[in-house]
Amino acid sequence: MLKKRTAAILGLVALGGLAIGLIIVTAPSRDEAAAAGAFFTPDTVVGVEDGVVDEVDGISPFADDLPAIAKLDPELRTAMQGAARDAIADGVEFVVTSGWRSAAYQEALFNTAVIEYGSAEVAGEFVLSPEESRHVTGEAVDIGRTDANSWLSQHGADYGLCQTYANEMWHFELATEPGGECPPQLPNAHG
Ligand SMILES: [Zn+2]
Q1: What CA–CA distance (Å, rounded) separates 133 from 128?
Q2: Is the pLDDT of residue 110 over 70?
Q3: What is the CA(129)–ligand 1 centre distance, in A?
Q4: Does the predicted TM-score (pTM) go above 0.90?
């Protein structure tokens, strides 16, 4: 718990653009967290360094300076950016609504879902734990908007990109060889 809190505080420090090496010994309040632009949940504070996408409409798939994009598996990132370039030629613009996530961020999402859905079992249909999520290993990317999702469902396999869960039309993983065939979709994240 102490470790997690420390990591959360360090993330907050990085977010606030404060000097490296500064140590804050008290946990940040909700207001402090919000002031720093952090995402606040009951258990932890995470920010852009954890892969949080803080733009309402998502970020550019080419934003290699942001951890959400930079820490994706390089093969997935290359495939996604190649697809995004070709989609532009068809008049379709990709945005990334979520990419790589730190374990702390995934845990925060999971905890929030457990509160929202009332049990870990139901929450698990929508959000995976840090141990299970392929966002944490950088092997999954969520793409918006609807026209980009449609474009990818038609052309994604040309790049090896497949929608892997039937209930998440935005969630793509490298799941076949470029030009191959995507495997059948699982009904949800827990199959
Ligand atoms: Zn996803």
Answers
A1: 5
A2: yes
A3: 12
A4: no
